[in-house]
Design goal:
Helices cover about 15% and strands about 35% of the residues. It is mostly beta strands and about 300 residues long. A five-stranded mixed β-sheet has the order 3-2-4-5-8, with no helix packed on it. A four-stranded antiparallel β-sheet has the order 1-11-10-9, with no helix packed on it. It has a four-stranded antiparallel β-sheet with strand order 14-13-12-18, with no helix packed on it. The longest helix has 19 residues. The termini are far apart.
Length: about 300
């Protein structure tokens, strides 16, 4: 009798300890809908799944196309062997097409044009068939990024594995403002360091300990968080994860939902230039919520 009771007790205890986190059905619905929108953004024409090339320009003229004898070789059977060239002089990049090659700007064929980079609202986007390309600027680097709107990755993408939805990772945090606004160092995958303005820290409690995240203000009504934790490089991407949160309300309160922590673009493509977490945003806890790493990362 005693033996049977002990077996029953151990069984119940084991089930209780291995039971997956639970959440309110409406909250589960909210996170699942957020995930659907996230997948759709990744698969969009301006998403991260269709990148097929990124090349940094040198001063002077660089020829490009799919043939090996170009200065810039775009490995795509959808592009002509020789397309034209980019002329980079000081901080101006001009595109020039070869005769007989149709390069489109919207509905108009172009032969020569000064490119407006992606840091401006009227960025110049050129297209050949399903392949688009444009000028990008990253600090002192000027480059050309290529997208294939019919890429296999977009067609075959099924989403990103996530941790089970756990409502305990939806945390009420406090905002501690910096007065004056603090300038923080944010590294990126290219080895560059950018100075970003941090209006304050998002401060929260977990497992009896206090944790802080320096936020970046990108304008609008949200703050941008770049974080790493003790799952980074193991179950989640080694370069950290991103989050957006609403700016604090009148009481200085912020709703911090780690179930919406997501991968940087560099997880999906080697042609992105992602920021990395500032050193102070490496958190000494395992955040078992949000997106896990996708594929092998980059």
């Amino acid at each position: 009798m005693l033996k049977s009771f002990l077996i029953y007790f151990v069984l119940i205890f084991t089930i209780a300890c291995t039971q997956k986190p639970t959440a309110d059905p409406n909250y589960i619905k909210e996170i699942n809908e957020w995930d659907v929108k996230r997948v759709n953004r990744l698969k969009a024409d301006d998403g991260w799944l269709n990148l097929v090339g990124r090349f940094w320009l040198k001063q002077g003229e660089s020829t490009f196309g799919s043939a090996k004898d170009n200065d810039i070789v775009v490995e795509s059977s959808k592009l002509p062997e020789h397309i034209g060239s980019f002329i980079f002089k000081d901080s101006v990049v001009t595109f020039r097409a070869l005769d007989g090659v149709d390069v489109m700007l919207g509905d108009m064929s172009v032969k020569e044009i000064v490119l407006v980079d992606d840091q401006k609202s009227d960025v110049t986007v050129l297209q050949i068939g399903s392949v688009k390309f444009n000028l990008i600027v990253r600090d002192t680097l000027y480059g050309i990024r290529f997208r294939d709107l019919n890429s296999d990755l977009v067609k075959n993408f099924k989403g990103v594995e996530r941790y089970p939805i756990d409502e305990s990772w939806k945390i009420t945090a406090k905002f501690e403002a910096y007065n004056p606004v603090k300038e923080i160092d944010v590294p990126n995958v290219l080895g560059q360091i950018s100075k970003e303005k941090s209006p304050g820290a998002v401060v929260f409690e977990r497992d009896g300990k206090t944790h802080r995240i320096d936020a970046v203000d990108e304008g609008g009504d949200k703050l941008f968080l770049i974080i790493a934790d003790q799952t980074s490089g193991d179950e989640t991407y080694g370069g950290g994860r991103f989050m957006y949160v609403n700016k604090p309300d009148s009481t200085g309160t912020i709703l911090l939902d780690f179930n919406k922590a997501y991968n940087p673009p560099c997880v999906f493509t080697k042609y992105a230039t992602c920021p990395l977490p500032p050193l102070q945003n490496y958190l000494k806890l395992r955040i078992e919520a949000g997106e896990k790493v996708y594929g092998e990362g980059h």
